[in-house]
Amino acid sequence: MNDRRAGTETESCGEVSRDDVREFYSKAAVATQESLCCPVNYDPSDLSHIPSEVMDISYGCGSPVNRANIAPGEFMVDLGSGGGIDCFIAAKIVGPEGKVIGVDMTEPMLANARKHAELVAQNLGYNNIEFKHGFLEAIPLDDQSVDVVTSNCVINLSTDKEEVFREIHRVLKPGGRFVIADIISDRPVPQEMRNNHELWGECVSGALTLDEFINYSKRTDFHGFTLKKDYLWKVVESIRFYSYILTAYKPVPVEESCGPGKVQVIYAGPLPAVTFKNMQFPMGVAVEVDGDFASQLDCHPYRDMFNIIDSEEKPSDDDSCCG
Predict the structure, then answer these.
(1) Same domain as 212, residue 84
(2) Do both 228 and 280 map to the same domain?
(3) Which of 4, 35, 176, 208 has the least C-beta neighbours within 10 A?
(4) CA–CA gap between residue 63 and residue 56 (Å, rounded)
(5) Is residue 230 assigned to a domain?
(6) Against a cut of 0.85, is the pTM above it?
(7) Residue span of the structural domain in which 263 resides
């Protein structure tokens, strides 16, 4: 199930269902569908261990794995994993101590991915990949079990996007993140386009605006958003559809963070000042906050933006600061 490309037909076809999408991508698993191919530029070094046939059924609008800062040993799940390209790339990054699971609802795609996973494992010298049948709205994984969730142009295909974000939140560990490549529209898609089965399968009719995407995420308690526009992908009915990479984090509970009391924090830049939770932080100026707030700022994705000033911090034992 990864990415796809938009057509031009816009007649109303009735309400879109999950079965419509599954049928659409079952065909794409058997033969390359040129109408679904978006300009994803994978680094050739990421593909050296992957059978070339995987690229023939790889559909996507971005490369979320390379934007996710995945570390060796992490547990990643890719939603709508399709032919497995993003899982195979991640398998090399997380290494033998890590784990990668692809989730897809399309059996022909899963069959292809599992077949190629055997050769990928041989080429890597270890097997850390598994493919599961499942749905975006019911991810077949335990609560708080995953470090990072990726998806490549599939959130727009769901007819219940809020449930997708609830499920992503459920499976992520505290402090975990999602990194999603998806198609974003510059204005809401009208209902007549949303009812078009072909355009839905081609990742047009189900696209969200940025406000809609972020609001769905905020309602399911994500924070620390970063957005990266990759390119203008398509214009349909005067609506501009862009490829974006979107990242956000699941908060760390207070009891797992830094501790109580008053703490000073200094915003490190590069902007002259930022406002967060109705507090202003001028660059280079110490601002006193409570310990719980400081704990949030001392965790990803804010950690590199703020310096935490601990009044009880001990000097270094080394007398020399030079050399």
Answers:
(1) yes
(2) no
(3) 35
(4) 16
(5) yes
(6) no
(7) 254-309
